Amino acid sequence: MKALTYHGAGTHRWEDVPTPTVRDPQDAVIRVDAVTICGTDLHILKGDVPEVEPGRVLGHEAIGTITEIGPGVRGFVRGDRVLISCISSCGRCRNCRAGAYGQCSGGGGWVLGHLIDGTQAEYVRVPFADTSLHKLPEVVGDEEALMLADILPTSYEVGVRNGHVRPGDTVVVVGAGPIGLAAITTARLFSPSRIVAVDPSPARRDAAKRFGADVVLDLPEADPDALASLTRDGQAAHVAIEAVGVPESFELCTRLVRAGGHVANVGVHGKPATLHLEDLWIRNLTITTGLVDTISTPLLLDLLAEGRLGTEGMITHRFDLDEMLTAYDTFARAGETGALKVALFRR
């Protein structure tokens, strides 16, 4: 089969690799029908994730059809159309039993496209199928479901939920790429009084407005006084969601929240960020980080099926599966191409 493989920083290929088979009783092999590329994949290509070995098939989010199942799989059968979660869960370890699937110590967590071969291929082996796949309702299409493999649960859990967004809050989202737009979308579920999006790109600021941001700011406009002028009590934001993954955006978030506020870091960082405790210690700030657990995926899937959660407009570019290298180039040059999310489909 064909797959997108990593061969060290800056090098990736669309090449022939062995088709996966069932190795363990809980495995499922899935024909990939739709797949996308994540910003984390770009971090891998830059060399920011050293655990990824040369030859690894990348990708951790897809929609597909089960073609083979291990004898230990009970909840799925061949032919089932499924959402492949970016997080695999053994379902048995202490962390999984507490709902912290991203920290699975039984062989799961973020393994696809990281520690084992991933989804940017014609077929993929998924471990722990019963606890790592989601059967899709007929009313949910491949394209809209694809956004639930990673960016929507990630933004919701690590940004909105961990940031404790509440009704009436002012929420600032720094970065209006796919993760930032998903944070705006899911923050709206909690009726904040105002959502402010910060991004240097005019096209992404426009996208933030379409996805529900009340105010958009360019980077030079984003300061505590600007945020305070937008709130009834004249203070800065209650919650700042970092959705980029560079030191400057994290440090900006710490300046845009009020005393007692919350900074929820979602972005994947490849370089150290300075934590200015000499300024922050007295402001009672809470800072959270996290890898998504995907425990919210069933909830978000229900909201999507009921028409209460929209994903329209997140995918801006579509390709055939064998156009993977073109899709990567388009996504990597988002500033020039206007790409938000790209999607690839089996012919």
Q: What this model shows, in words?
A:
The strands form 3 sheets. Strands 3, 4, 5, 6, 7, 14 and 15 form a 7-stranded mixed β-sheet that branches. Strands 10-9-8-11-12-13 form a 6-stranded parallel β-sheet, with helices on both faces. The two termini are 14 Å apart. Helices cover 27% and strands 23% of the residues. It is built from 13 helices and 15 strands. It has 347 residues and is α/β, with parallel strands linked by helices. The mean pLDDT is 96. The longest helix has 11 residues. Helix 5 crosses helix 6. Helix 6 links the parallel strand 8 and strand 9.
The assigned structural class equals alpha/beta
Largest sheet descriptor? 7 strands, mixed
How much helix, percentage-wise, in residues?
25-40%
Total beta-strand segments: 15
Radius of gyration: 20 Å
Shape: globular
Distance from N terminus to C terminus (CA atoms, Å) equals 14 Å
Strand content: 15-25%
The total of helices stands at 13
Identify low-pLDDT runs. Answer: none
Q: What order do the helices and strands follow?
A: EEEHEEHEHEHHEHEHEHEHEHEHEHHE
Average pLDDT works out at 96
Give the oligomeric state: single chain
Question: What topology does this entry show?
Answer:
Blueprint: E1 2-6, E2 12-16, E3 28-36, H1 39-46, E4 62-69, E5 81-84, H2 94-97, E6 123-126, H3 129-132, E7 133-135, H4 142-146, H5 151-161, E8 170-174, H6 178-187, E9 194-198, H7 202-210, E10 215-217, H8 224-228, E11 237-242, H9 247-256, E12 257-265, H10 277-280, E13 286-288, H11 297-305, E14 315-320, H12 324-332, H13 334-337, E15 341-345
Parallel strand pairs: 8-9, 8-11, 9-10, 11-12, 12-13, 14-15
Antiparallel strand pairs: 1-2, 3-4, 3-6, 3-15, 4-5, 5-7
Helix pairs in contact: 5-6
